[in-house]
Design goal:
Quinone Oxidoreductase, Chain A, domain 1, Rossmann fold, 2 domains, 6-stranded parallel β-sheet, 10 helices, binds NADP nicotinamide-adenine-dinucleotide phosphate
Length: 324
């Protein structure tokens, strides 16, 4: 037996129940992992609250983690007992031990700690696909990123800087704005105090941005469209303030032949080869120091509810991990 945080029904953070769950041996193609660190992500709160439909009940949330392989089933290639590994999957990581398809695992290079791995498999790969595939950023592009001091945000600023783009961030307090500035952003706007659309217009001298990466949703999407240059790209990749309502395709024409998309990481790493290539790019940038990853909040796994309260209450910056 091992322990997990189990949800019996959607609810607030208190719905996460720390309880014993049955263990089993890995079947063909599977590995058993003893977790050492588990990342906290907004998607965990979307599932917990029921905003995202549950594929099964009861549910275990958690979308990125690192650990050690304890056992492998038949027909497993590429990982062996004792390997340090990490992965990202939509669900299932808030537990001490788990069985997982071995082809989702990435073996960790020596220079990457388990805690760092548990914060970059989802957040870092997200930045990787957003800036290389969803909207391939090139030197000289101007990008606006909301929640720039968040887990994804701090990695994104550094990555944009490394690509030679001008990065404009928004953040919800002077302290968060300062933190974002130290992580690659050329300009940071306190969007709880200032009108970010007006400031972006000033910064870009009326032209607007090439791309907006918007993970805040309800509170920012309309302003985001107004921050774009003609034929600019609106990349909506999250909804930390709530879902977008009232959007219509006609707005893209009115905004100047804009494009819009709503990408998700898991559609960019379905193929093993693509997962490996994106992870290799991420780890190379971390090893080169072009992008620094750090853990800014730690919680015991059993206290993940506190991590959710902090994340949903805008009280965190950068990445948080849960320690089993
Ligand atoms: N589509 C994908 O593939 C994908 C993958 C990973 C993450 N995401 C999305 O990216 C976003 C960032 O994820 P994360 O885990 O790194 O979280 P995060 O950015 O560390 O935390 C969310 C931040 O959003 C901001 N925010 C603005 N309005 C908010 C509100 N009403 N309630 C709560 N927060 C609010 C807060 O920053 P301020 O205080 O600075 O406003 C808060 O710290 C999430 O929307 C997530 O769903 C999407």
């Amino acid at each position: 037996m091992s322990k997990a945080l189990v949800l019996g029904a959607p609810g607030g953070p208190e719905a996460l129940r720390w309880q014993e769950v049955a263990d089993r041996a890995p079947a063909a193609g599977e590995a058993a992992i003893r977790h050492t660190a588990i990342g906290v992500n907004f998607i965990d709160t979307y599932y917990r609250s029921g905003l995202y439909a549950w594929p099964e009940t009861p549910l275990i949330v958690g979308a990125e983690a690192a650990g050690v392989v304890e056992a492998v089933g038949p027909e497993v290639e590429g990982v062996a007992v004792g390997d340090r590994v990490a992965y990202t999957t939509p669900l299932g990581a808030y537990r001490e031990r788990r069985i997982i398809a071995a082809d989702r695992l990435i073996r960790l290079p020596d220079g990457i700690s388990d805690e760092i791995a548990a914060t970059v498999m989802l957040k870092g790969l997200t930045v990787q696909y957003l800036v290389t595939s969803t909207f391939p950023v090139k030197a000289g592009d101007v990008a606006l990123v909301h929640a720039a001091a968040g887990g994804v945000g701090l990695l994104m600023g550094q990555w944009l800087k490394a690509l030679g783009a001008t990065a404009i961030g928004t953040a919800g307090s002077p302290e968060k704005a300062e933190l974002a500035r130290a992580h690659g952003y050329d300009h940071v706007i306190d969007y709880r105090r200032d009108d970010f659309v007006a400031v972006v217009r000033d910064i870009t001298q009326g032209r607007g941005c090439d791309v907006v990466y918007d993970s805040v949703g309800r509170d920012t999407w309309a302003g985001s469209l107004r921050c774009l240059r003609k034929r600019g790209a609106f990349v909506s990749f999250g909804q930390s303030s709530g879902p977008i309502e009232g959007f219509s395709l006609a707005m893209l024409a009115q905004g100047g032949s804009l494009s819009a998309c709503r990408p998700m990481l898991f559609h960019y790493i379905e193929e093993r080869a693509e997962l490996e290539a994106r992870a290799a790019d991420l780890f190379a940038r971390l090893a080169a120091g072009a992008v620094r990853a750090e853990v800014r909040q730690r919680f015991a796994l059993a206290n993940a509810a506190d991590a959710h309260r902090a994340l949903e209450g805008r009280a965190t910056s950068g990445a948080s991990v849960l320690i089993p």
